Amino acid sequence: MPLSKTAYFMEVNNLYPIFLKTKNLHVLIIGGGFVAEEKLTFLLKSSPDANVLMVSPMFREGTKALAKKGNVQLVYKKYHRRYLKGKHIVVATTDLPEVNEKVYKHCRRRSILVNVADNPPFCDFYMGGIVTKGNVKVSISTNGKSPTTAKRLRQFFEDVIPDNIDDLVKNLNEYRKIIKGDFEEKVEKLNELGVNQVLVEAGPTLASAMLDHCLMDELVIYQAPSLLGSGESFFKFGQESTIENQLRMDHISTQVLAGDVKSIYRIRNGE
After folding, report:
1. CB atoms within 10 A of CB 235
2. Is residue 37 domain-shared with residue 146, that is, in the same domain?
3. What residue numbers bound the domain in which 81 lies?
4. Burial label, 232 (beta-carbon count in 10 A; 0-12, 13-18, 19+)
């Protein structure tokens, strides 16, 4: 009896991740229970300067304490659409489905981004797991399928991303400020800083310029087993290439990686 074949198709997460400057926006959280407090907690943890308005007939003691630490205003009222005025993001967390659905419809009419807690069809966005280490921030999304998985991934990345990664980011930013001018000047600056190896992923224009100015010591070429027809030349030299002025290289190694061919050559600068 022939075995049946089962096709497996992986669902794709089509969400577009962005990082918002919430200090320039106005956020509304509707509800005062545990879920509302949880949303506020994670929002302020990631963005302590967020502008937040919360509307509910009651609030938990923990929510009141959080509000005092941030720019959070508490309004002891039932939801009304007038609270949507001037808001950019709305999160509905009440335990009344009819109220949450009303919030969603009101926001959609006003082109306001809205998230109804635990109700993906009524969400324009999800509040995913977030890992913050100084200036480094990683956001995790499971497309609303599994908040628990997002939480575990967040805990994993909090452990594996080193605490000193922010020092690396700051140092690279300082190098970026220092290194200005044309490529030769940048190389000289890097030498002054004690950096003697730089990996450059270049297109035809930059790669050719580096070769023209003898700034390349080693060339790494990846070749895929496919032909795409006509296109740009791999290199664009400042002068016509001939037998006499050909670029000479020494072959170092060749390696097959998942079907692609990686070849490394050492440039004979000055020859």
Report:
1. 16
2. yes
3. 22-160
4. exposed
Q: Are residues 31 and 153 in the same domain?
A: yes
Tokens describing residue 267:
């440039």
pLDDT tops 90 at residue 66: yes
Residue 222: both structure tokens together = 């990846």
Task: Please state the length of the chain.
Answer: 271
**What is the per-residue pLDDT across 26-48, written as a single tens digit (0 to 9) for each?**
999 999 999 999 999 999 999 99
Spatial strand order of the sheet with 113-116 comes to 71-75, 51-55, 26-30, 89-92, 113-116
Neighbours of 106 (CB within 10 A): 18
Evaluate whether residue 195 is within a structural domain. yes
Q: Give how far the C-alpha of residue 149 lies from the chain's centroid of Cα atoms, to the nearest Å.
A: 19
Distance CA 173, CA 175 (A): 5
Structure tokens at 113: 């981004």
Both tokens of 131, joined, read 């890992």
**98 and 131 co-located in one domain:** yes
| Range 252-266 average pLDDT | 90
User: How far apart, in whole angstroms, are the C-alpha atoms of residue 202 and residue 260?
Assistant: 18
* pLDDT of residue 63 exceeding 90: yes
Which structure tokens are listed for 74? 């508490």
Angle formed at CA 134 by CA 133 and CA 140, multiple of 5 degrees: 40
**24 contact partners, CB below 8 Å, separation of at least 6:** none
Give the Cα separation of 212 and 241 in Å (integer): 11
d(CA 201, CA 183): 14
Domain shared by 206 and 79, yes or no: no
Q: Residue for token digits 């967390």?
A: 93
Name the domain count of the chain. 2
In this structure, what CATH number is given to the domain that contains residue 192?
3.40.430.10
